[in-house]
Amino acid sequence: MTQNAAPNLSPAGEFDATGIDLGLDKAEFRRRVENLSNLPTLPHLMDTMSQMIADPNSSMSDIGDEIAKDQVLTSKILRLVNSAFYGFNRPISTVTHALILLGYDAVKGLIVSTSVFEYLPEAAYSLWRHSLGVSQACRAVTRVIDAPDEEEMAVAGLLHDLGKVVMHIEASQPYAKLIEIAAAHQTPLWKMERALVGFDHAEIGLWLCEEWALPEKLAVPIGYHHKAQIARQHRQRVSIVAVADALVRAMEGGAEADLPLEELPPCVEEDVPLTEMQLRRLIDAIEPEIAALRYLTPDDMG
Amino acid sequence: MPQKALPLSMAQAGMVLAKPACNDKGMVLCKEGTELTENLIERLGRFGIDMITIEDDHEVTPDEIAARLGALERRFAQVAPESYLGRLKGLLIERWSNPPS
Ligand SMILES: [Fe+2]
Ligand SMILES: [Fe+2]
């Protein structure tokens, strides 16, 4: 493989990918990601859950019982919500209890998270730490600006880079190489993804949310966290995730080798205005969380 | 004294609690200032403690500070100082330049 033409950013910020070879062409990369062949099928329970939620005759405990039939999934969900890293401060002992405290949408997101992260290759587990960090940071930002639905925001943070998780699972080597190239050129990962494979992890995340019937309150922040300015709805949720992601990466909690931060679009500042005091409070809240996450091992994943 | 939070599984005898270790219900099982022993660590585990905060006596060297700030500069190379994120960078420089001692 020859790689003599060094890629460059044009004045418009477009990346010239001439001469870069990921060992997989764009179409094949896309085909692998779309096939999801290394992931278990999870729509079944998600569909059942959606139907039951829509059915006035099923109660929350009926739905809890339905999820609880899957004992492996149940124990994983309970382990996650009760772990010190997820940040819920009361013990949650049953799925129904989780549904009551966290709500349907958050629990749906947790089902996706526990089903997907366990397949993340060990080499990429810094993404798991990053995701937990952003989840915590979403909580902190939501609290500081007094926005609603902290639990849903925590789940949106946990899943914001879902598209990366799936690329690591379905195309692990070419994707690892893509990350290396982004680091070598100090280019934001989503831009490098667009240049080399034609789509980015936020788009993949949005597509997966649709496949798996996740609510728009989760799907939109996941799908637009790098392009808040074009989100038509749930803009504040998108902005909270964008700020949380930036805070975590700024404080050494990035998923990949330190990639450069990008300026956030003005709408993010409008949606999440932060005074210096609030910014200091956020740093105080998030920095120790990120430090503690350094001790997380691959065993704690999924 | 700087503090750091860590999972109980990483705790070692000799570490000193910087914050009380509390269970889920907020009951204090061990006061701050307590020096951990093997025995105590095991007991905290049995009481369901999974995170503790300890005193961190690691002295940050000037080289470590410089390396950390250098990485911060690279990370923020594309961010203007007066922007939304630029303000965050300013606060982090302030904080990381003078670690608490
Ligand atoms: Fe992202
Ligand atoms: Fe991220």
Largest sheet of chain A, in brief, is: none
Q: Strand tally of chain B, please? A: 4
Which structural class do the helices and strands of chain B define?
A: alpha+beta
Count of structural domains of chain B: 2
Ends distance of chain B: 6 Å
In the sheet with the most strands of chain B, the strands line up as 1-4
Instruction: Tell me how many strands of chain A there are.
Output: 0
pLDDT < 50 runs, ≥5 residues of chain B: none
Uncertain regions spanning at least 5 consecutive residues of chain A: 1-7
CATH architecture of chain A: Orthogonal Bundle
Give a short account of the largest sheet of chain B. Answer: 2 strands, antiparallel
CATH topology name of chain A: Hypothetical protein af1432
How does this structure look, described?
The complex is a heterodimer of chains A (302) and B (101). By secondary structure, chain A is mainly α. Chain A contains 16 helices and no strands. Chain A has a single domain, classed as Hypothetical protein af1432 (Orthogonal Bundle). Chain A has helices at 26-35, 43-54, 60-68, 71-82, 95-102, 104-117, 126-144, 150-159, 162-170, 172-184, 189-197, 201-211, 216-224, 235-250, 266-271, 276-293. In chain A, α6 runs parallel beside α8, α7 packs across α14 (235-250) and α9 crosses α12. Chain A is globular and about 60 Å long. Residues 1-7 of chain A have low confidence and may be disordered. Chain B folds into 2 domains: 3-55, Molybdopterin biosynthesis moea protein, domain 2 (Alpha-Beta Complex); 62-97. Chain B is built from 3 helices and 4 strands, in the order βββαβαα. Chain B has helices at 38-46, 62-75, 84-97, and strands at residues 3-7, 21-22, 28-30, 51-55. In chain B, β2 and β3 form a beta hairpin. The radius of gyration of chain B is 18 Å and the shape is elongated. Chain B starts with a strand and ends with a helix. At the A-B interface, α14 and α16 of A face β1, α2 and α3 of B. The site of one fe (ii) ion has 6 residues of chain A, from α7. One fe (ii) ion (FE2) binds at residues 130, 134, 160-161, 245, 255 of chain A.
